[in-house]
Amino acid sequence: MYKAIAVDVDGTITYREPVLHPEAVRHIIKLSKRIKVMLATGNAFPVAYGLSGYLNARGPLIAENGGVVYYGGNIHIMGDPELPQKALEYLRSIGVQFSESISNKFRLVDRVIMTKSREEVESNISHMRVKLIDSGFALHIVPEGVNKGTGLLKACELLGISPNEVISIGDSMTDFEMLKLSGYSIAMPNSPEKLKDIADFIPSGRGYGPSFVLAIKFIEERLL
């Protein structure tokens, strides 16, 4: 019996653009009455915290790609939160061209950048115990060893359940570790092939919010 569901945000419950899909929102709120819903997102913690409240997602919150896990009024910082900022400062000092997301002012752990020189960024921070990950919406610098999978493990610890009792849904490689650890994994049709390869189920359609609705209907009929 599954006891929780971990849901990615951008690209999963949105349109192609980062705009929430109304039917996806309605189905999450409905589902939250039957099972604990955990948002698992790359969004900054304050954004994710507010969104989880509006969606009635009462399970632990996994924000900043696993860098922050929140539950029961407690914020758990995963990894060294100083490393991504140090990486940004180093890149700036050696003249690598990039711009920062305004959301960095509110982030507790990871940092978001925009750049045309991804390879240059990766090569220059490879020695700094951080990694660069692409959510499909932005590039995130996160501490080494931090991802949504480690965030999921912490969330399960807080709930007193096993990852095998969790259903996870995502659409990008930032969701890979989370889906791989979960008892049941769902990859959206708009996911890269590597993510689809490890998924237990892929809903029909072109992806995003409409396919998420189909995934939830499948969960309600077959898994709960």
Give keywords:
224 residues; alpha/beta; Rossmann fold; Hypothetical Protein Ta0175, Chain: A, domain 2; 4-stranded parallel beta sheet; 4-stranded antiparallel beta sheet; 8 helices; 11 strands; 36% helix; 20% strand
Q: Look at the structure and give the mean pLDDT.
A: 97
Q: Which parts are unreliable, with pLDDT below 50 for 5 consecutive residues or more?
A: none
Q: How would you name the CATH homologous superfamily of the largest domain?
A: HAD superfamily/HAD-like
- Written as H for each helix and E for each strand, in order along the chain, the element string is EHEHEEEHEEHEEHEHEHH
Task: Provide the helix percentage.
Answer: 25-40%
Number of helices: 8
| Count of discrete structural domains | 2
Radius of gyration: 17 Å
What is the general shape? Answer: globular
The CATH architecture term of the largest domain is 3-Layer(aba) Sandwich
End-to-end C-alpha gap: 7 Å
| Strand order, largest beta sheet | 2-1-10-11
β-strand number:
11
**What percentage of the residues does DSSP assign to strands (E)?**
15-25%
> What is the CATH C-level name of the largest domain?
Alpha Beta
Largest sheet: 4 strands, parallel
Category by helix and strand content = alpha/beta
CATH topology of the largest domain: Rossmann fold
